Amino acid sequence: PILYSYFRSSCSWRVRIALALKGIAYDMVPVNLLNDGGQQFSAEFKAMNPMQQVPALKIDGITLSQSLAIIHYLEDTHPNPRLLPQDLKKKAQVRMIADHIASGIQPLQNLSVLKEIGKKKMEWAQRCIVSGFQALEQTLEHTAGRYCVGDEVSMADLCLVPQVFNAERFKVDMGPYPTITRINKALLELEAFQVSHPSRQPDTPAELRA
């Protein structure tokens, strides 16, 4: 497999966690979203992923984009360890939380949106994340065990950790979100979340390396 990734892309990080958890070896091709006017806009990359976004994963003779679609494919082809519970209610809760973050928070504070916002991008990002985290905290009060849904790592957790990283980058006060904070801390103790961390990627700038 070949993963096209950017060290600080939260969507790429989700996929890196999944690959690490499932023990899938891969080669990485860095796509710098800032250099050269954004390498994702190159003709070569656009031919591979018309949405001009990372991540993209070449695997088993196909190219997949969209992080959750990639993770679903990895789940289907490498079912252990499971990232979706077998219990149907818990599975629905995992998908709900993953979508809450992947559709309801992350795109609103994404690089392409912040470019359009201009000078007030920090305030905009904070407002979007706070609004999403207020709802997410309430949801997790009902679903969480050690992690987002019960005591097993799931697709929801793969979305949570990168989003908390974004929140911290944008200086969001995490005080009002004790459940999110507790789960994030527990997940960051796991090796798969550490090796996939933005501070430990081949394209991480020297000053940001762990």
Automatic annotation (TrEMBL):
Gene Ontology MF terms: glutathione transferase activity; maleylacetoacetate isomerase activity
Entry EC no(s): 2.5.1.18, 5.2.1.2
Annotated localization: Cytoplasm
Reaction catalysed by this enzyme: RX + glutathione = an S-substituted glutathione + a halide anion + H(+); 4-maleylacetoacetate = 4-fumarylacetoacetate
Positions of the GST C-terminal domain: 87-206
Family: Belongs to the GST superfamily. Zeta family.
Protein name, entry field: Maleylacetoacetate isomerase
Gene: Gstz1
